[in-house]
Design a protein that fits this description.
Length: 260
């Protein structure tokens, strides 16, 4: 079985630098895979990617040793099992608000007796090894999204779900849940307090916590807060950010700092 690099980094006490894909195509996925990320997540929830488009993206990620993760559109066993059979080594599941919902999510990622995932790994067994079935329960990463006030209030019951490997903060939904504006890198005290509370609870239960950020600076702040899985923007935002800097600098007649 191919090792899950994310779990290895956590076992070493390190922090995972995670990329994010929202463009439904294998070419940008392949280019992103070669940029030094530890893992890359294909977003089938809010990105433009449908599950069938994720297959060539997973194939593109396989040109490197980056760990392929997929965010499903909902806590539904069908897309979860399909994504794993296609070769995803981890699943991020949105809107987990209770122990029962977390158990349903984790169960879909685990073969019996630990869960109810159906056997038929197809591509996963091809790319991850002939011993995939007996080792998948240990290798596949389960990440439950914490993105509501309700989930924060039920953190302890969620974090003690058997088979849960990690939690992942969605800052926009979390902010909206507390009555504030959506967006990356929230600074509103009540939301920031919740973000710190999540990290502290995860550490207490020995569960690595992740968060989506809109800047390297905020990502480093979250590392200081105890987060061990940091996503920085996504392919679309990184591309438009670089393009905007280039066109602005050109029209101003001066190269941007660190521009190519």
């Amino acid at each position: 079985m191919v090792a899950n690099r994310v779990k290895e980094i956590w076992a070493e006490g390190g922090t995972v630098c995670n990329g994010w894909l929202g463009i439904p195509d294998g070419v940008p996925a392949e280019f992103m895979a070669h940029q030094g990320w530890d893992s890359i997540t294909i977003d089938c929830q809010h990105g433009l990617v449908e599950l069938d488009a994720a297959l060539p993206m997973l194939q593109a990620l396989s040109t490197t040793d980056v760990t392929p993760i997929l965010r499903v559109n909902w806590n539904d066993p069908a897309p979860i099992m399909k994504a794993l059979d296609m070769g995803a080594m981890g699943i991020i599941c949105p809107m987990i608000n209770s122990r029962e919902e977390c158990e349903r999510f984790v169960g879909a990622c685990r073969y019996a007796p630990d869960g109810y995932r159906s056997v038929g790994p197809v591509r996963a067994a091809l790319v991850h090894g002939g011993d995939y079935i007996p080792t998948a329960n240990e290798s596949v990463l389960t990440m439950a999204m914490i993105e509501t006030k309700q989930a924060v209030e039920r953190l302890d019951e969620i974090l003690t779900t058997p088979g849960l490997d990690s939690i992942y903060v969605g800052p926009s939904d979390l902010s909206v849940s507390y009555g504030h504006s959506a967006g990356f890198d929230p600074k509103t005290p009540v939301v920031l307090d919740a973000i710190h509370k999540i990290a502290e609870a995860a550490k207490k239960h020995g569960i690595p916590a992740g968060i989506h950020t809109g800047s390297v600076a905020y990502g480093l702040e979250m590392v200081e807060a105890g987060y061990q899985f940091i996503t920085i923007l996504n392919d679309i935002r990184l591309m438009t950010w670089a393009a905007k800097n280039a066109t602005t600098a050109f029209k101003a007649g001066a190269p941007a700092k660190n521009a190519p």
